[in-house]
Amino acid sequence: MTTPPPHQNPTPPPAPANFGPPSKHQLALMIWLAVFPTLLALNLLLSDWLRTLTPVLRTFVLATIAVPIVIYGLMPQLHRARRRLLTRNATS
Questions:
Q1: Neighbours of 70 (CB within 10 A)
Q2: I need a surface site. Which of 31, 58, 63, 89 has the fewest CB within 10 A?
Q3: Which stretch, 5-9, 16-20, 46-50, has highest mean pLDDT?
């Protein structure tokens, strides 16, 4: 039997822990953390312009702007933060 040269590691480093998808409750909290500040900011930034619209049109405009911000901008960051938090807690 031969031994590997000293510069080679015979065993690969452990794979990062896979914690799976968030639970219903974690996902609900993550969505709330993304949606509430986004809607608040949009309402404050666009309040003068939104005031002139009907409630249905106002809701349509807010949803059209907020959904991409939440889905493509904030949720990936929250998923990464969750993964870091779980990884940190698993190694502690």
A1: 20
A2: 89
A3: 46-50
* Averaged pLDDT, 59-66: 97
Rounded Cα distance, 48 and 50, in Å: 6
- From residue 53, alpha-carbon distances to 35, 40, 82 in Å are 21, 17, 38
Three-class SS state of 87: helix
CB proximity list for 74: less than 8 A, separation 6 or greater: 33, 34, 38
**pLDDT for position 19:** 78
User: Which amino acid is located at 9 in the chain?
Assistant: N
- 3-state helix/strand/coil string of 14-55: CCCCCCCCCCHHHHHHHHHHHHHHHHHHHHHHHHHHHCCCCH
Tell me which H or E stretch contains 83: helix 75-91
